[in-house]
């Protein structure tokens, strides 16, 4: 059954790459069949092919890379082809070939062994076009985060528990033992949803806050009641709903705490986010250098004000009523 939720971030980028390759090899595909094949909605397919047809890269302007038959699209038939300007195979400079090779070398460390064969074949083809590997001006290597991503992906695929040290939003470090059940991306962040053996409840963890990840034994899948599963940040009854005004430079705050909130335009937006501990609010807001303001409630504004006063050394304890 096609997914109802729209894709975003890296998921949408990877989906569009796969869709482009598929459509070039399979002309005049029914929209319904494409939605079934890629397990997304027909609306997502239509939006993606229009975006692809308007893409421009380097010397190629929009409409010069691909041709989309809009008449057929109105009949729910997708026909995407290379534009005439790309009928001839483009020549690559040494630097361009090196950039592609570097990207492939980056990917080969992250994919499954069966997929590494195809990437290595492409690297060999690029290598034949170079006089010497010394001509490659740079090489991209996976970072620690990429290795962690591959490790967690393996844990989810093999139903293996993992242990790590975790830094929460307050900056506190603790050891966690987790049964990961889902790995998903929202914008530029990766999140791990699973059962935390340490706290004995379902939790969501940010991958970039996980350190020293090690795989443990396999575990029996358990039923986790977490609503419809679409929310990254799980709201509790004790949380305080805080009204923020967020400038575009700080939209990362919304991506962290309320990724389902749609953002459009280049102006400030107001959004309500449930915060578990108001004591952490000052530290959260301070990360964005004045680009986030707390509007309500007063208790949240006071928490931020007290944090700022302590940071400036101006905080004085409030008088205690007798």
Automatic annotation (TrEMBL):
| Residue stretches making up the WYL domain | 149-214
Name all PafC HTH domain ranges: 14-124
Where would I find the WCX domain in this sequence? 241-312
The record's listing under InterPro entries reads: CBASS_pafABC_assoc_protein, PafC-like, PafC_HTH, WCX_dom, WYL_dom
PANTHER family xref list? PROTEIN PAFB, PTHR34580
Q: Spell out the protein name for this chain.
A: Unannotated protein
Species assigned in the record = freshwater metagenome
């Amino acid at each position: 059954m096609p997914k109802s939720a729209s894709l975003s971030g890296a998921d949408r980028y990877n989906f569009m790459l796969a869709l482009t390759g598929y459509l070039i090899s399979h002309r005049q595909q029914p929209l319904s069949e494409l939605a079934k094949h890629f397990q997304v909605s027909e609306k997502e397919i239509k939006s993606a092919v229009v975006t692809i047809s308007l893409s421009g890269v380097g010397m190629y302007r929009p409409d010069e890379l691909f041709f989309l038959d809009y008449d057929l699209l109105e009949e729910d038939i997708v026909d995407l082809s290379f534009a005439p300007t790309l009928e001839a195979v483009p020549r690559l400079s040494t630097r361009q070939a090196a950039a592609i090779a570097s990207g492939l070398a980056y990917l080969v460390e992250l994919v499954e062994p069966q997929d590494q064969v195809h990437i290595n074949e492409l690297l060999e083809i690029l290598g034949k076009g170079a006089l010497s590997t010394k001509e490659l001006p740079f090489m991209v290597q996976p970072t620690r985060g990429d290795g962690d991503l591959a490790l967690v992906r393996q844990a989810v695929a093999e139903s293996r528990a993992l242990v790590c040290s975790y830094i929460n939003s307050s900056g506190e470090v603790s050891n966690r033992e987790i049964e990961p059940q889902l790995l998903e991306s929202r914008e530029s962040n990766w999140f791990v949803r699973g059962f935390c053996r340490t706290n004995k409840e379902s939790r969501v963890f940010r991958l970039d806050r996980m350190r020293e990840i090690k795989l443990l034994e396999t575990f029996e899948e358990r039923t986790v009641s977490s609503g419809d599963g679409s929310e990254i940040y799980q709201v509790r009854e004790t949380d305080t709903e805080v009204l923020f005004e967020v400038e575009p430079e700080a939209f990362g705050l919304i991506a962290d705490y309320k990724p389902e909130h749609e953002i459009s335009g280049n102006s400030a937006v107001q959004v309500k986010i449930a915060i578990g501990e108001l004591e952490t609010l000052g530290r959260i807001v301070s990360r964005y250098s004045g680009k986030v303001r707390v509007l309500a409630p007063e208790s949240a504004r006071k928490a931020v004000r007290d944090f700022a006063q302590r940071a400036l050394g101006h905080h004085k304890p409030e008088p205690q009523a007798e």
